[in-house]
Predict the structure.
Amino acid sequence: MRRTAPFLVVALGAAVTLALSFTVSPWWWIPAAVLLAPTALGVWDVTQTRHSVLRNYPLTGHLRFLMEWLRPELQQYFIERNFDGRPYDRDVRTIVYQRAKGEEAEEPFGTERNMYADGYEYLVPSMAPVDVRDEPPVVRVGGPGCAKPYDMALLNVSAMSFGALSSNAILALNRGAALGGFAHDTGEGGLSEHHLRHGGDLIWEIGTGYFGCRTSDGGFDAAMFADKSAAEQVKCVSLKLSQGAKPGFGGVLPAGKVDAEIARVRDVPQGQTVISPPYHHVFRTPRELVHFIARMRELAGGKPTGFKLCPGSRRQFLAVCKAMAAEGVTPDFIVVDGAEGGTGAAPLEFADHLGTPLTEGLTMVHNALAGVGLRDRIRIGASGRVASGADIVKRLVQGADYTNAARAMMFAVGCIQAQRCHTNTCPVGVTTLDPSRTRALDVPDKAHRVHRYQEATVRSAMQIMAAMGVRDPHELRPDLLMRRIDPTTVRSYAELYEWLAPGQLLDEAPKTWAADWAAADPDTFVG
């Protein structure tokens, strides 16, 4: 009621003054006319489908658009005076919003980034650029044990669960994925009707709570998993080991969000806070992990199966690699989730201090798999603040085969980063289960925005690669990405990181890897 109170007050005032103009004095027509104009605007706000803020906040929502209009001038004011002590870094939300709306993400007068700051990175253009490909490349996911390979797009919807997101947000994301031919990761919150309605390709993610394939005591229900993974739209299945924003913490869905539908989708009691354990109960060692992956693939009818993690100990990941090599069992893909990834709710100290950033995680996973001679069998996905075409190209240089985006996809469906995700009061209907708020998110309109954003961003990545003289992602090399180390020193990724040759760990581990390789044990995660 508070959201619409200003509109209701204005509408009531218009009705009263209009009545007084007929019954008391024609002079009441003046205030009536003044109030009828905003009343008509408020009626338009609640009936239009383009802006979720206005649907939920008639009249008052226009204040946000006023500030958005003023923002470039205000930003320039602060840039010129350098009030914050550093050059302005262009807001990535602007790029996402422009592309989602079908507008060109361009800016006059060049960059405002400080190219001489430590850590600044840039991609290397070619003196002989090539033509941009007519069609974007896809990545074939499916190793030797896979019966139904899947062609993955360069940019896909990263894991976001129904419950964390509203039904309309899930519908819009999946419909956008169907329009654009890219994949939509369900997140660990189960496989809902909203994921299936529009026919978009799905990656069904299974977390430590085994939601959607859960026994009464919280274990893994193989029969239920096999039945649901047989759905035509489920193209891949993914086991979530950890998440970048809160590795080792598990998930939390507040009781206020666990309504009857969420309880049914997740197989949990209604009205009770749902907590995912921080670890899996179905395996306890690296060897058991790879065998469980193989079991999931068999239950899923041979569909591509993999796992997601925020890397931590290199020794522990090498233990998994040793288990793969010893057992002859490999996942079809591994998604590396960087510590910079977002979430609806996580302890601040976890988000700030735990987990490996995406760059280091990607290079470690890529090199470990190469070192044991398994890189050609396993595709690597990258997630964690991927939003632009340049982000995609950088992650491909660093070892990924494809990328996933969550935060940017939320912006595309209308998220304004109000940071009310955990309160069930999202002002634009993205992260709430309140029907009166969810209705603000118009599914057809936002689905087209998701499609436009993904398409424009992949096209941008292809244009960047063409400017680098590259037509196929496989041609990208570590020496094509540079980083400034200090004001006078620049190094390429070929110089900054050690890149292992195929099978190098099996032949003779380099000194920098030798201790971790020797200590890695496929029968324990300890160490």
Notes: The longest helix spans residues 443-467. Residues 5-56 form one domain. The chain has two domains: 5-56, 139-516.
